[in-house]
Write a structure and sequence with these properties.
mainly alpha; 2 domains; 11 helices
Amino acid sequence: MEEMGLGPNGGLIYCFEFLMENLDFLTEALDSLTEEYLIIFDMPGQIELYTHVPILPALVRFLTRSGSLDIRLCAAYLLEATFVVDRAKFFAGTLSAMSAMIMLEVPHINILSKMDLVKDQVRKKDLKRFVTPDSGLLDDDPAEVARRREEGARPEDDDAADPQDKDALMRGAGFRRLNKAVAGLIENFSMVSYLKLDVQDEESVGAILSYIDDCIQYHEAQEPKELKDDEFDEPEE
């Protein structure tokens, strides 16, 4: 990064571009693996890779094309469950998830991770509403309702806020209209729903793996097991 004068994001893009020019390195590492392996690509969190930079779609096409690799892929997009505490942040993350779904064009699941961190902050009844996001979550945001009750503010009052006051702008009517538009877009496309993941709960992890198996048709690809001759032998009396 220092040698080429690149920042963290620019350095990451450069590394992916370098990888795409030297895919033999990836092929050699994966070609010897059999169908018994579940390969996990732990991708970086820089959102540019999943919104407008075409590198990952090209990598997906390389991995899935018929030939030596022909890997069945399932994209698992992780959004921290702590985002549900800030509903504007939650919808921003959900919009990014939808962008990744459109960009990658592979079987895809969205996961609310780190559920153990919000168990004491959000009721189970409320958490269910975040599994299938809808714009109504913004209308009854407890934080916004409490703020307006305390300040006695009206929506039109916020439009007169000082443009240099970032906190005021983030509370303003314009910001709420933007959030509402984003939430409406997500709701209209109706593409994003979430699975809940708590890594401390074995059943939760097993359920996620089961969904991934379904997406890649793992069980359908298995060869029928042939019984050995000794398994046909009658038991001795």
